[in-house]
TrEMBL record:
InterPro entries found in the cross-reference section: FAD/NAD-bd_sf, FAD/NAD-binding_dom, FAD/NAD-linked_Rdtase_dimer_sf, Pyr_nuc-diS_OxRdtase, Pyr_nucl-diS_OxRdtase_dimer, Pyr_OxRdtase_I_AS
Binding locations of FAD: K51, D296
Keyword Nucleotide-binding among record annotations: yes
Source organism superkingdom: Bacteria
Transmembrane segments: none
Enzyme Commission designation: 1.16.1.1, 1.8.1.4
Occurrences of domain FAD/NAD(P)-binding (ranges): 4-306
The organism's taxonomic lineage, starting at the top: Bacteria, Bacillati, Actinomycetota, Actinomycetes, Micrococcales
Cofactor, how bound (note): Binds 1 FAD per subunit.
UniProt xrefs under PROSITE patterns: PYRIDINE_REDOX_1
Naturally occurring in which organism (per UniProt): Mycetocola reblochoni REB411
Descriptive protein name: Putative Dihydrolipoamide dehydrogenase Mercuric ion reductase PF00070 family, FAD-dependent NAD(P)-disulphide oxidoreductase
Length: 451
């Protein structure tokens, strides 16, 4: 079967391109190896289900039975994801689109063979898009093949809720699950191999996050490397360089690796880097003309909104003017959904100091922002705001916001940076009340030179 567009992997970029090409009258084949992944990582095992669980966990009260509450939360998660999964399949059940359930492997530059339940199918695309995503990194240590060891996908269906949970890894994924399971009622211990907590974050912000987790009841151990694991049938013991840690379950949150092992990329002549991610140029084209890679598998930031923007770049390269570039992206925000969420965009303090600019900084703890009553209303006053401004141009350079609603506030700052807005546009804005946006009125009134 020859098609105009062959998509491998049903992620955000791939499914969007498939729909757009079909709407333009092109023939499309979309290959997905797992029916449970219709729609991609985000809606099935990533952003949406985990944030649904985060919200459920935040709603639990001391009077709620942890086991019953967790099972109800998981059932609600599954119902939501089942609906989204089916809707994503239905969205591409349209003329011009052939949906193929199976595992694809390349046999040539733009040709794949797909192993399906009915046998092998050969597909050739004038344009090929690889969007197979990434998966959790495994720990290759003795005992870590125990059924008590989970990754960020499998732990979403753990049963029963563990009384004690050890998390191997102190990165953003590990922190999200630490916050979540603590709110569900587990006693959580984080084992972080680094000597410094959140080393890529400003030290005052990292300390605010650390103290917030400690206030929740999370135990954080720095400079700890696991060496092996024993499972006696009732609990696991993680042996480390700094002692033993017992728990009913262990979550490995040690990063993610690209899903390329079964693709046979060498048969197509498609290059990968030393980490296994597919090498692409600024328009996301691989070493093979006409073959593009989108989403987590191309080594860029692993966010679904980046995958959506990858779709725009590939569409422009194939069907548009060919002017869009990955390097065009400015002020890409990110959020870690601990409670409260931590959001960042643009420069942090370290980058601002190294920028060579004349920089102003505004900083204030959430609990001390009088013009922002919303945190007090919802009962979550942890966190702080930090914003950086060019003293000469008055343009906003970046922000770190550790606060309720930061996932929304950071988007406003990102837009301000992209549009070249002045600090007065945020500081003197007229915002609804009570809202978290009001914080900008007060916090940006405290700008001082960055010493």
């Amino acid at each position: 079967m020859d098609v105009d567009l062959l998509v491998i992997g049903w992620g955000k970029a791939g499914k969007t391109l498939a729909g757009r090409f079909a709407a333009a009258g092109k023939t499309v084949a979309l290959v997905e190896r797992s029916p449970e992944m219709y729609g991609g990582t985000c809606i099935n095992i990533g952003c949406v289900p985990t944030k649904d669980l985060v919200v459920s966990a935040e709603e639990r009260r001391d009077s709620d039975d942890p086991q019953e509450f967790f099972r109800t939360a998981v059932a609600g998660r599954d119902a939501l994801i089942g609906t989204l999964n089916a809707a994503n399949h239905q969205m591409l059940e349209k003329p011009g689109v052939t949906l193929v359930d199976g595992t694809a492997r390349f046999t040539g530059p733009r040709t794949v063979v797909v192993d399906t339940a009915e046998g092998q199918v050969e597909l050739t695309g004038e344009t090929v898009v690889i969007g197979t995503g990434a998966t959790s990194r495994r720990v290759d240590l003795p005992g870590f093949d125990s059924p008590r060891v989970f990754d960020s996908t499998t732990i979403q269906h753990i049963d029963p809720l563990p009384e004690r949970l050890v998390i191997v890894g102190g990165g953003f994924i590990g922190l999200e699950f630490a916050s979540m399971f603590t709110h569900f009622g587990s006693k959580v211990t984080i084992l972080d191999r680094g000597e410094e907590f959140l080393p890529r974050v400003d030290r005052d912000v990292a300390e605010a996050v650390r103290q917030t987790l400690l206030d929740m009841g999370v135990t954080i151990e720095q400079g700890v490397r696991p060496t092996s694991l024993d499972d006696d049938g009732t609990h696991a013991v993680v042996h480390t360089t700094k002692g033993d840690f017992a728990a009913e379950a262990v979550l490995v949150a040690a990063g993610r690796v690209p899903v390329t092992g079964e693709l046979g990329l060498e048969a197509a002549g498609i290059e990968v880097d030393e980490r296994g991610f597919v090498v692409v140029d600024d328009q996301l084209q691989t070493s093979v003309p006409g073959v593009y890679t989108v989403g987590d598998v191309n080594g860029g930031p692993q966010f679904t909104y980046i995958s959506l923007d990858d779709n725009r770049i590939v569409w422009d390269a194939v069907m548009g003017q060919g002017t869009r570039r990955r390097s065009d992206r400015v002020a890409v925000p990110n959020t870690t959904f601990i409670t409260p969420p931590l959001s960042m965009v643009g420069m942090d303090e370290t980058q601002a100091r190294k920028s060579g600019r004349n920089v102003l900084m505004a900083k204030k703890e959430v609990a001390k922002i009088a013009a922002m009553p919303r945190p007090k209303i919802v009962g979550e006053t942890h966190g702080l705001f930090k914003l950086f401004v060019d003293a000469d141009s008055q343009e906003i350079l970046g922000a770190t916001i550790f606060s309720i609603d930061s996932q929304e506030l950071v988007n406003m700052v990102a837009l301000a940076i992209r549009l070249g807005a002045k600090v007065s546009d945020l500081r003197d804005g007229i915002w609804t009340h009570p809202s978290s946006t009001e914080a900008f009125n007060e916090v940006l009134g405290t700008l001082e030179p960055l010493a």
